[in-house]
Every structure is written in C-alpha cells, then in structure tokens.
Amino acid sequence: MAHDTNGEMPYRRMETVPSGLRTAALVLTAIGAIGLIAAFLIEPARAWRAYYINWLYFMGVAQGAVLVSVVVSITTGMWARPLRRISLSFAAFMPIAFLMMIPIFIGAGHIWPWVGEPSLLSPGKEAWLNVPFLTARTILGMAILIGLDLAFAYHALRPDLGLIRDRIPGTLKPLHGWMTRNWRGQETEEIQAFKKMQVLSAFLVVVYAIVLGTIGWDFVMSLEPHWFSTLIGPYFFMGAFLTGLMVTGVIALRYRSGYGLQEWITEKNMHDLGKLCFGFTVFWGYLFFSQYIVIWYGLLPIEQSFVIHRFSAPFVWIAYLVGLCVFALPFFGLLGVTAKKRPEFFTLFASISLFGMWLERYLLVYPSLWTGTDSLPLSWQEPAVALLFLGLMIGAHTWFAARFPMLQMWTPPSEVELSGITMELSETAAVR
C-alpha cells in the first residue's frame, strides 16, 4: 500500500493484490461453482435450497456492512473514520448479489411450498404470495437499495479521489477520471459530498429496513404460509447489521496487522467497534426472545409451528448451536474490555458470530422444507455453495481495495466542527 500522508489519514490502497488472496478468491469460487453444479446434478431441490440460504446470508453480510458505514456517517461517528471505508468496500459485492438473486425465482418451485400447492395459502394471501409479484417487488426493492448503496459510495469516495489525482497509476486514471468529472475544487466537493451523503444516508436507512424486512417476510415467513410474525422482518435485517459489524471488525484487524495501520486503526477504535458488536449481539437476543416469549405464552398452534420445527429433532442441536455462537459466546466473550482490544480475541468471537449467523440463516429456511425427517439435511452441498459466495465476496472486496483509498482521507464539515478545528473556507465553499 502507498504510504503518503494527507492530513490525519494517510493514502492507503492495495496497490498489488496479494497472490495468495487472489488465488484464494479464484479457488473458492471455482470449488463452489463445481459444488453447485454437482449438487444440481445429484439433487436439484437440495441445490436450490443451499443456494437460497447462502444468498440470504452473504447478501445480508455485505448490505449490513454497507449500512455500518452509512450509520456511522449519519451519526457523525468520528471514532469510526478509519473503519467506515472498510465497511463501505462491501458495496462492491452488492451488484453481484443482485445478479445472483435472479436464479432464485427460476427455482421458486423448489423453495416456496405454496408455489406448487396454492391451496396451502389462506384465502386472500395469493394476491401477495405469487411468483410474478414476488419477483417484481424484490427486484425493484433490491435495485433501489443497491442504487442508493452505490450513490453513497460514489459521494464518499469522490473527495478522496480528488486528493490523490496526481498519485494514481495510469491504469486507474479512466475510472478515477470518470468519478471526478466536473471537479469544482476540494473544499466545494467536500461540502457537496457531505450534503449529499446526509440525504442519501437518511433514505438508505429507511429503504434498508423496508427491503430487508420485506425479504424477511417473503423469503422466510412465507416458507410456512400459515405462520406469521410481525417481528421477523426486523429480526432479519438487524441480524444482517450484526454480521456487518462483525465482518468490519475482522477485516479491519487484518488490515491493521497486515499493512501496518496500528497508528490509525487503534485499540480505541476497536474497543468502540467491540462495544457496538456487543450491544447488537444483545439486541439480536432481545429480538429473538421477543418473538419466542409471545409464541410460547400464547400457546396458539398456528403460531407455534415455526418454532416447533426448529426446536425439534433433527434441527434442535442446530438451534442450540445458533444460540451459543450468535449470543452466548460473543456476549460473554466481548463483555470485558480486553477482548475488544485484543485482536486475536476480537477476531475469534466475531468469527464465531459470523459462523453462527450462517447457521441461523440455515435454521430459518431448512426446517420449513424438510419436515418429517429424522436425518439432518446438512452435508457438503451447503458449505460448497457457501464457498462460491465467499470467493466472489473476497474478489469484490479486493477489487475495491485495489482501486480506492481504504482509509477515508477527507474530513466532513460536521466532523471538523465537532473536533474543534477552525478551517478557513473560501467564500464559495463556505455557503451551505
């Protein structure tokens, strides 16, 4: 990475993608693609469901990470300035997630039970739960969400690209030139970017909740057409946000140690991020318990089926493992200060949480589709397809890191004011 400094934050870019990382992305993608093809040849229904849960998980991780950058920007989280670009880098995966969403609707008959048996739907539900309308609203919602992601990333990057225009290699000049076209001067660009990011972030938070909440209802709740929960949408999108926090921490620590960023990604930054990870781990547990306690107390059969399927054999041990990995271990592991500041402990508990959330997505889907079975439908198919998505996500992240600064160099006006620094702006730039 380059080592020139500019103000508080240095210019850091992955000038050369490490051969091991590039190889890992290619190998994982290839193995995953081969595994997916083999799964389709052996058992198509199982392949579609493995693809389904992995799309839900990896799309949620990437979108949750982007939202982390959005939230710390809209709340003027100065402590997260060295981290926000790392979380924003996952916006590069979202167009891939959009394209990988399309095949799901082709395999709808293998995923949603009401597609092949419309009689499973209660009267009136067919107006909402039908494949054409489901496809249209999901594609439209995801297109709007990803469009906002990319617009936010563009405005977050543009001021930095202006700062480094004279220091980039020739191969990046076309991309950077397109992103900095109609340049109006550094001060003006920073103020304009700040204003646009404030507007975009407000819309993005709302659209995120609506789109991922709707996906929670359509892609999870509708798997059992007679079951309903008003909390499944928030439970789904807050789980995605939790994974976004955890993956940001894991990647930040990798950059910190691998590229000598200890001076900028400090223990204090990781302590603050660790507190957020701990807090939203507790919030995830709260949302789960809020659903469970009402269902348990109400004793209504129509509400109990979803929970019974997940806390009965053969899935009950997966349910316990999810509780252990997503809540218990991260809760007690990140409860103290030391684990938040020590990279090895933070990485351990964040990785456990990420693995637990993958199992949680599996648990949201499979028990509704594999009823009346004594054997656990968890074999090579699900992890193999996960490798495909993981390889593509690593590739998207390294593409971003090789082209853009991975530490935000410019300082938004609101953060200048909060830090107590007085800056002399030109008359034009000072107009807000």
Strand neighbour order, sheet with most strands: 1-2
The helix fraction, in percent, is over 70%
Distance between the termini: 35 Å
How many DSSP H or I helices?
18
What series of H and E elements makes up the topology?
EEHHHHHHHHHHHHHHHHHH
Q: Could you describe the largest sheet, including whether it forms a barrel?
A: 2 strands, antiparallel
Task: Give a written overview of the molecule.
With 432 residues, the chain is mostly helical. 72% of the residues lie in helices and 1% in strands. The protein has 18 helices and 2 strands. Strands 1-2 form a two-stranded antiparallel ribbon. A hairpin with a 2-residue loop joins strand 1 (5-6) and strand 2 (9-10). Helix 10 packs antiparallel against helix 15. The chain starts with a strand and ends with a helix. The model is unreliable at 1-7 and 421-432 (pLDDT under 50).
